[in-house]
Amino acid sequence: MGLLDKLSGWLGLRKKEVNVLCLGLDNSGKSTIINQLKPANTQAQEIVPTIGFSIEKFKSSSLSFTVFDMSGQSRYRSLWEHYYKESHAIIFVIDSSDKLRMVVTKEELDTFLNHEDIRGKRIPVLFFANKMDLQDAMSSVKVSQMLCLENIKDKPWHICASNAVRGEGLQEGLDWLQGTLSAQHTAHITTTKNNFLNMFVFLFFLYL
Amino acid sequence: MTSMESGGDGGKWLDAHYDPVAGLYTFSSCVDLADLSGDGENRLVVGDLGTGSSGMKLKVYRGTALMSENTLLDLPAGLVAFFMDLHEPRIPTTAVASGPCIYLYKNLRPYFKFTLPSLEVNTLEQDVWQQAREGQIDPLTLKEMLESIRKKADVPLSVRSLRFLSLETDGLDEFVQLHKQQPIRRQTVITCIDTLKKSTADEDGVSCLVVGTESSDVFILDSKAFIILSKMSLPAPPTMMDVTGQFDVEFRITVACRNGNIYILRRESDKPKYCVELPSHPVGLVRVGKNVLVGCTDESLQGFTQKGKKLWKIVLPAPITTMAPMDLPTRGFQGVLVGLANCEVHLYRDKNLLSTIKTPDVVTSICFGRYGREDGTLIMTTKGGGLMVKILKRTVVFDDRDSAPGPPLAQSIRLNVPKKTKLYVDQTLRERESGVAMHRAFQMDLSRVRLAAAKAYVKALESSLTPMSASLSEPLKMNAVVQGLGPSFKLTLHVQNTAACRPVMNLAISFLYDENLYRIRDPYMRIPLLVPGLIYPVGTFVDCTNDKGITDIIKVFVLHEGRSSPLLTAHINMPVSEGLALS
Question: Residues in domain Bardet-Biedl syndrome 1 protein GAE (chain B) (predicted)?
Fold first, then answer.
């Protein structure tokens, strides 16, 4: 990143790029959610089970997202951990109608939270309690209870109920993610700006 | 999701669901997993036995919830889901075997009923009932005649006659009035059911039904036309069955029968090809790979090859309640799950215990497979009607080693055995070439040794050369002890009367020795009356008169007054005298 790029970034002229990892069990609706977040003209008509992973890009008002849409099938779940390091945010999708596999979701979530690349990081995690339209779906409160989300103390997290097929609840979640990321970004920029200023003062004194 | 406690299984399983009051009473033969709606999500199909006399139902579960219920007319003996045609969408048919019929359900609706052909009826029995119908004989005579037919006929009586014979006298008339108009039929009953792929080994290939009956037959039914493709006879009624292969190519049916034997049927013959006689009755039969695992009533699990050769046997901590295979093709894992009466489920790969699952109740049925969208799902129902679902963790690794206590690992390390020497090889060759001659020579020498020993023994007995007397009038026993370093030794003779109650009198002891070497103080002694059982020590002193270290034998005779031959003889090997004579 050149100096000009940095400068434009600080001045808010250029959108900041963030890498987002989309996780969740198979058939939870990850690809459908990502598809809904894309601009209307690039949306796919039919969603098929993801093999391995796929990369999608879209922009919001202030951020430019690169989403790694991981496959949730059990044989591909071992791929997830290779992408933890480079991600700035996580989207975790839960099928709230699948009561039987909630325990598997919890197992995968715990494995994820205890991974060495994630454990110490203040990385925002957005949970989508998806498939709210289904009759036997659990509420987002119930889902967060079953997954023991209240135990996540060191990371900002947010859960919102969603219906990916009709796009309900997705914007709310994305707004939260954007807000959290921007806040972190601003904090980061403020410190760098101060450093920059100090350097100028130092150079000035040196010149004198 | 009422229970989330871990089951003491080393964290290998996730507790997905436990409903202790699901009201499911069933056995492993009546449980199956199938994609009944063709949407990629497997459902649990259960033939519920209800109370055993009422409330029999075909239940279908989706996830944690009961999806549908169909009432069954009779107790289910077995339930299988299979593809009977190639129509799209691929929706499997559920077959429920109960009584002499197979009820087929498609899309959870009754679709077809197949009844096994009825058996031959005893003609005498038919005649007797004919007479009863025409009023020629009264119910009591009918009962007597049926009783006599039952005893000697080679074709067994029909169920109707057997029920009639079991009735009390006052119910006979009513029973005859009720039933005499209907023709007599003899139906067999299905005891077990399984599927056999018709011509392809594909997961969704068309299958035939394989049915074992109470009449000791095994039928293979075509699922399209419902005709009997093949009929095979067994020596006893089958109770459990395992089928592998394809009907058109080659198949193998392993059947556990009520006589405690296991028979293996092959494609070519209608009679069993191999037979395994078990030490106790089988309670579970599962095929893992090419081996057949059998659980027996003697709390053991045994492994056999597909030709019936026994491979191993392990003893279990409790009686077996049920068994099921655990096949996980995505990980190449094959094992067997054994439900035990001590509320445990053990997972074995071959004879190695890999995992123990503790359950809150005794498990009566086990089913492992794809349920919902999860491949490694274990479904169990309990004696109290509970339903339990566990999911195998994605990251779980099963150790190859046995987790049960046993011999240490070092025991299986091979020792560095030295190479065979030339001498060894030559010897082995010689033994191989002239083994018969060597054996004969050995046998001849052995016989000679035995003959020589027998001769010496007879001689000793005849001349009373032994320190034991076996004569009836004076049964005696004697042993001698020599004490001292020399030249003076003390010689003590312990004499015992071994008779039960008779004393022995008039005995004397005399010695025979080389007078140049030894001098005995009392060379002739009288023995007092011998009371039976007591040991009498008789002692004297022996002086060695020679100082050259020569030893000799002293012979001791026990004599009876007035008889010339001794009653018994003892030879005493004198020790070397280590001191010098004083005089």
Answer: 476-578
